[in-house]
Amino acid sequence: MIKYEEIPYLSVELPEDVTKEKWSGNFDEERKLIDMFLSQTDLSYAMRCRLEREKENIEILLRNYTIPEEEAYRMVCEANAAVTKEEFDCWRRQEKMDWIYVHGKRMFSNSFFGTLNKVYPELLNGTACEEKADEVDDYIASVDAGTASGAHIHIRQELFIVDDAVEEGKKIRVHVPLPVERDYITDLQILRVDPAPDHLPSAADHQPTAYFEDTAEKGKVYSVEYCFESKPVYRDLSEIDPSSIDFSAIPDEEKVYLQEELPHLQFTPYLRYLAQEIKGDEKNPLRIARKIYDFVTTKVVYRYMRDYAGVDNISQYCAASLRGDCGVQALLFIVLCRISGIPAKWQSGLVANPNYVGQHDWAMFYLPSVGWVYADPSYGGSAYRKGRTRRWNYFFGNLDPYRIPINDEFQKEFNPPKKFSRIDPYDNQSGEIEYEDHGVYGDDLDYRFTPVDIHAR
């Protein structure tokens, strides 16, 4: 188990022999090497923390990569019988499918097929999906027409241990995400929390949760139900005179968002080079922020990810591979902004429309005299690739009302904190449960989001 104050040590590079065994998929040998290092009495504290975390990372990788290559190919062929093994191998080399070696065999990510279906549907069914207007497009059109209002959001969120993993009668500690009134949320009403919680969040909590102490029981579900009004303020950043933004006037309380936060908001040499290359000769920070947004949205391709806890440096990973999900893209935007002297930070929660509620992450950046504004590189990148220029431009500076902002900081502890390592030590949208003597991970934990009443205002 890693403590929160030890997470920055993930930035420490592993000994070369450990890295060799890791990416060769020789995890048994990697464990033996780590234990050998940990047995040394003169091992530095930083390296000890890094190696102890690496033992946890092995288990994360093994949970995330469970599909043998032959099974992955069979799954693809079931969707499109015309796909040859040569074509499948070409997709793998093009990094359209995520995999690692495990004990000498290629094992594909549990989410590889989902990525193909979402990002490359034409590979599976032979045709690209027709893009249809949605409630976000309707909202953007209402903004342009000067009639925008917002949305009413009412959802129920549930968390539970699957029956086969329940250890009846044992004490458990439960954290279920629960938003607080911030940003464009107004009239937040907590309609139901079941069972009665031991602790409810305050506005000061960066990753707010309803907290329960209970006894494990099959069929027991922990749920929160709430509603609020969502009305973002629209800002057309293209209408702002960049020369009017005085970045020498950044308030002291916002300057913290110019700093490194190890390990994932780390100013590595490559990220510094990349930031300089992106901005070129441009001096104005607002224009630089747009250039960073354009880079992320036009160069990075969406991918479902393994658990974030299994990635050593998320922003570096994204910059080097040019792939990643919404949170990975947001972190790359944030770190490039900070390197460029633009305060930037994390926000995450849920997207919520009348038929679907799901997890999502985005970014914020600070403009003196304007305040904090939004950037959603994932939504923006999707719009760009589909030729939807208005939507692409909209998500530089703005969000739609169909989302639930829950977490306003990355890599922050719960209140009260967990005893054992979190499934995701950096973010929290689905919740976490632990017993007194171990955490609950992987398929042993499940959750549901239910849209009760979501409609435009």
Question: How would you characterize the overall build of this protein?
Answer:
Helices cover about 30% and strands about 25% of the residues. The protein has 14 helices and 18 strands. The protein has three domains: about 1-130, no CATH class; about 135-230 and about 410-455, no CATH class; about 235-400, C8orf32 fold (Roll), CATH 3.10.620. It is of the alpha+beta class and about 450 residues long. The strands form five sheets. Strands 4, 6, 8, 17 and 18 form a five-stranded antiparallel beta sheet that branches.
Notable features of this structure?
457 residues, C8orf32 fold, 24% strand, alpha+beta, 5-stranded antiparallel β-sheet
Supply the CATH architecture of the largest domain: Roll
Which structural class best describes the helix and strand composition? alpha+beta
Distance between the termini: 46 Å
Beta-strand portion reads 15-25%
Uncertain segments: none
Sheet with most strands: 5 strands, antiparallel
What integer value in Å does the Rg equal? 23 Å
Query: Given the C-alpha coordinates, what overall shape results?
Result: globular
CATH class of the largest domain, named: Alpha Beta
Structural domains: how many: 3
Helix content: 25-40%
The number of helical segments is: 14
Average pLDDT confidence is 96
CATH topology call of the largest domain: C8orf32 fold
Summarize the structure.
This protein has 457 residues and is α+β, with helices and mostly antiparallel strands. The protein is built from 14 helices and 18 strands.
Write the layout of secondary structure elements.
Blueprint: H1 16-23, H2 27-38, H3 45-64, E1 65-68, H4 69-79, H5 85-93, E2 99-102, E3 105-109, H6 112-119, H7 121-125, H8 135-145, E4 151-161, E5 171-177, E6 185-194, E7 209-215, E8 222-230, H9 269-279, H10 285-299, E9 301-302, H11 314-321, E10 323-324, H12 326-339, E11 344-353, E12 356-367, E13 371-375, H13 377-385, H14 389-394, E14 396-397, E15 403-407, E16 432-435, E17 445-451, E18 455-456
Parallel strand pairs: 9-10
Antiparallel strand pairs: 1-3, 2-3, 4-8, 4-17, 4-18, 5-7, 5-16, 6-8, 11-12, 11-15, 12-13, 13-14
Helix pairs in contact: 1-2, 2-3, 9-12, 10-12, 10-13, 11-12
